[in-house]
Structure formats: C-alpha cells, structure tokens
Amino acid sequence: MVNGNMLLTRIKDDLKKAMQAKNKELAEVLRMLISALRNKEISLRKGDNVELSDEQIIEVVASEIKKRKDSIEAYSKAERVDLVKKEEEEIKILEKYLPKQLSEEEIEKIIKEVISSLGEVSPKDFGRIMGMIMPKLKGKADGAKVQEIVRKIISG
User: Fold this and answer.
1) Which residues, at least 6 apart from 88, have a Cβ–Cβ distance to it below 8 Å?
2) In the predicted model, is pLDDT for residue 12 greater than 50?
3) What stretch of H or E contains 146?
C-alpha cells in the first residue's frame, strides 16, 4: 500500500481537479473528507505535527461512509428520497479511497480461519471473535456485513 502521503496527495489532487472542472458535489465531498482527516490529525497530535498513515486515512474514510449509511437509514424512514440519493452519491465518491472491498466469500473464509484457530466457539464468543477479525478486515469489509456473517457462522 502507498504511504499516507500518497493517499492524501491523491485526495487533494482530486479536489483540485474537481474545482477546475467546477464539479461542486465532488469538491464538497472531498473538502469534507480533508476536513475530517485534519480533525483526526489534530486529535492525535501531542505537540508535534502528526502525519496520518494510510490505515488511519482509510479509517476516516470508512467512518465517513458509515455516517452516510446511518443518514440514509434516517432519511429513508422520513421518505426523503432526495437526501438518500445525495448520501448514496457521496458514498460512491468516498469508496474510491478505500482498498478493494472483499467479497462475502473472502470475508467468510477469513472468519472461518479465525474461528477454527479458537477451537470450540459459541454465540457468547461473538465479541472476542469480532475483536480478532476486525483488525484483519479493517477498511476492506463493512463491519455490519462482518457481524452478520460471524453471527450466521457461530449460530450454526
């Protein structure tokens, strides 16, 4: 993977291109993402300047996508189709900055490997299993999807 500078540089370059092309929607999403990244840097700063790693940038992008998915849920309940569409468009833009997402089969394979390394498991082990799996899948799979697959596997 590229270092944090490369991913951040790509995001900033894309913002410049969006502004030059007068693509207001894209520019708005990228400005918001850069702002979220700055906030993350500030929260990690302890005196010296902090440069976010690729993984940290991916975490912020994934967090921004999750916020939009939560908003879509709320807007859907309120039947605000216009706002749902806007959030879905923003998710598409943000997903370009995540690593390739794993397929359900790939996620399931990793989960089964972790579970088999633990031996006998029950639904009570859900938290422990998730704690071991999520670092392996961070940024590569949606957390809700991972939870769903883990529950399906451990409930037999």
Assistant:
1) 68, 72
2) yes
3) helix 143-154
pLDDT band at 139 (very low <50, low <70, confident <90, very high): confident
Say which residue the tokens 């500030």 belong to.
42
Residue 33 identity (one-letter amino acid): L
- Do 23 and 63 lie in a common domain? yes
Q: Extract the tokens encoding 9.
A: 């540089």
Of how many residues is the chain composed?
A: 156
What pLDDT was estimated at residue 3? 47
Q: How far apart are CA 27 and CA 14, in angstroms?
A: 8
Q: Residue 119 is part of a domain; what is its CATH number?
A: 1.10.10.410
Domain final position from 53, 75, 95: 95
The mean pLDDT value for 150-154 works out to 89
Q: How far is CA 102 from CA 2, 20, 65, 98, 138, in A?
A: 19, 34, 16, 11, 11
Structure tokens at 123: 């639904």
Does the pTM exceed 0.85? no
Please report, for residues 28, 106, 121, 142, the alpha-carbon distance to residue 156 in angstroms, rounded to integers and kept in the order given. Answer: 45, 19, 10, 22
